[in-house]
Amino acid sequence: MTPPTGHEKLPSMATFSVEEHTPSQPPSWKPLKQEYLVMLTISILSLMVALDATILVPVLPALATALHGTSSDAFWAGTSYLLTSAVFQPFIAALSDVFGRQQLLLLSLLFFSAGALICALANGFTVLLVGRSIQGIGGGGIITLGQVIFSDIVPLRQRPKYFSFVLGAWAIGTILGPVIGGAFVQKLNWRWVFYLNFPFCVAGMVMIVLFVKLNTTVKESYKRKVQRVDWLGSFLFIGGTTSFLIGVSWGGIQFKWTSASTLAPIIVGIFGVILSCVWETRVKEPVLRGSLFYNVSAFAAYYCAFAQGFLLFTALYYVPFYFMSVRDTAPIQSGINIFPVLFLLLPGSIVVSIITTRIGRFRWAFWSGWSITTAGCGLFLLLNLNTKTAVWAGVFVVFGVGSGMLLSSVNFGIQAISRSEDCGRAACMYSFVRSVGMSIGVAVGSTIFQNVMSSKLKSLGLPTSIAHVSEGFVAVMKTMAADDPVRVGALQAYVQGFHGVFIAMTCMSGSALLASCFIKTFSMDKVLESDFKLEARIISSGDLESGASSCRS
To answer: Does the record's keyword annotation contain GTP-binding (predicted)?
Structure first.
């Protein structure tokens, strides 16, 4: 990774603070009509991607049965999407710097649509996993380009306020996904979770073409654009990250952590990522910018982004599963039961966004959000066989408040910490690190759940194989008598497995709270630049010269 261009020596924190606290962005900035339309486009696409990422949660047991798959196959139906979504994000953002935002956003949506079609027509898990992987590439591109485009058109100080539209759409999609998935599997069939994407895809393509018209001042031939792309660095990074995440996903589920099948891809992946970082120091336009990680505050903030993804998706995967298995709740109801999270997640993120824009500070939301989230994760341990509704609803309220505060504060805190010229790439890196956290969270959660559940089953004299087909065994328990010893013991094992996951979540949240204490003060009033401008801004008098556009990607 390359050092900051044009700087032989990084400035001290004192120097940086003085520079960054110089107000340069007019607080009265207002979006033009075209900018509102771009925000609407990104919001709709974010809603679609968020729905798709979580809609499979209540469908996995039915999916495993319909396609004659194992618990491991069902696990990979979700993980394959998260994995490819994560690893391709930096590459897609870098390509958009060369070929254009609109072009890469359209290409990402085409990948997403093609993957959805393959999944909808799949008659086996192999085809389904191929489709989910292709969908993940497109979904990751849509998420990261939404971040980057916002950094092109909205000043940092105003960005939290207006990005709350996208956060709201993402939060609604994330929470409603399990509810809609449960409704489809109960009333229709699992293929409808993929059919649902097509209206969004068609509307998105039309809106991208009509509204996302960002022009660049850099004019060059297609051949020159291809030459500018860091193909080798991208290959090393994507290959290394993929290998690492596959190894982590296999560990403790398909193979033992100490087996060569698990360790080999992890070691190869780490070596590949290291090679890509070394290579990036030798190229002019690297995929990974070393200047993003120039101080302790940046490292701490990115760790918080990783923890955020880890916690949110682990909760969204295992809380509905808890209701369907332990509480014998129908798929639709299991999704409805996590509504307390939505009701506090969305308003919390919007309130924090508005306050952050007004006062230009974000650390208060870091500390408050992580404190409340850690408490909420710990309270998840109250979920057992007979937890009262008022208790579990209260637990979800606490977790929702904390998670809502973090949705916006971590994102824009990272951008405030970054240099002005790195702001767009910082937004991309936030999205990438959070997505890696999602992938690892689901994988680690599955490992912990199966191992803890297996241990409990063994202690009760029951077959540990139940833990390896835990999704499918939910249907089996429905046919057993309430006092059947196998059913009673299996329920105890399920609870023990979920508690293992919740303990891991509490530890992760606590570590993020500790990391947030190392983040120093940074102003959100920056000198902002961009090579990409909306046509309306170029035509509009004065705005371009006043610096109302945003940071360089």
So the answer is: no
pTM, 2 dp: 0.79
Q: What is the pLDDT of residues 248-281, one digit of tens each?
A: 777 766 777 778 888 888 899 899 888 888 887 7
Fold that domain 31-229+285-546 belongs to in CATH:
Growth Hormone; Chain: A; (1.20.1250)
User: pLDDT tens digit string along 174-197?
Assistant: 777 777 877 777 777 778 888 888
Please give the span between the terminal C-alpha atoms of the chain, in angstroms, as a whole number: 16
Domain boundaries, the chain: 31-229+285-546, 230-284
**506 pLDDT higher than 80:** yes
Whole-number average pLDDT of the chain: 80
What's the burial of 140, exposed, middle or buried (CB within 10 Å: 0-12/13-18/19+)?
buried
The DSSP annotation for 124-171 comes to SHHHHHHHHHHHHHHHHHHHHHHHHHHHHHS-TTTHHHHHHHHHHHHH
Helix axes 71-87, 231-250, angle to 10 degrees: 150
Amino acid identity of 393? Answer: A
Measuring CA to CA, how many Å separate 76 from each of 133, 141, 437? 10, 20, 16
Q: Which two tokens stand for residue 462?
A: 């029951």
